[in-house]
């Protein structure tokens, strides 16, 4: 008789835990990001006596969160993509600050003058004046980059 009461006690304990989890699910139903929980039950180890197998009741194996793994993976991937593009936009905006010039006195003009001076040098490679102009333009490029850092 005590064995029968013990089986009933384990069933009541498992049902009590399931009711607690159900109450928890109901109280958090309107909470953002909450996913419901579920009680997983399993049988207790049976007793073998005189060739007869007698059950010993049930027990709570675990409480698991119910969720869609596919949706969760898509959410993780979307978050990773968002971080990537946010970082990329930040880096590109820094580049844009350097090269997006309102006036015509910025780095773009300095670089154009520098490369144009090389064209002049290619046409007159022996001219010392043109060589010094290329050197001066190179120093202006360095100063321009230092100014924009």
Task: Describe, in plain words, how this protein is organized in 3D.
This protein is α+β, with helices and mostly antiparallel strands. The chain has 3 domains: 2-67, no CATH class; 68-100; 103-149. It has helices spanning 2-27, 69-99, 107-123, 128-147; strands at 37-43, 47-49, 52-54, 58-65. α3 (107-123) packs antiparallel against α4 (128-147).
Topology (elements, then pairings):
Blueprint: H1 2-27, E1 37-43, E2 47-49, E3 52-54, E4 58-65, H2 69-99, H3 107-123, H4 128-147
Helix pairs in contact: 3-4
Annotation keywords:
14% strand; rod-shaped; alpha+beta; two-stranded antiparallel sheet; single chain; 149 residues; 4 helices
What is the terminal-to-terminal distance? 86 Å
Instruction: Give the number of DSSP strands.
Output: 4
Q: Give the percentage of residues in beta strands.
A: 5-15%
Structural class: alpha+beta
Order of helices and strands: HEEEEHHH
Radius of gyration: 38 Å
The level of helicity is 55-70%
Average pLDDT, to the nearest integer? Answer: 86
Which outline best applies?
rod-shaped
Largest sheet: 2 strands, antiparallel
Tally the helices. Answer: 4
**Total number of distinct structural domains:** 3
Strand adjacency order, main sheet? 1-4
- Uncertain spans, ≥5 residues at pLDDT below 50? none
Would you kindly provide a brief summary of this structure?
This protein has 149 residues and is an alpha+beta fold. It contains 4 helices and 4 strands.
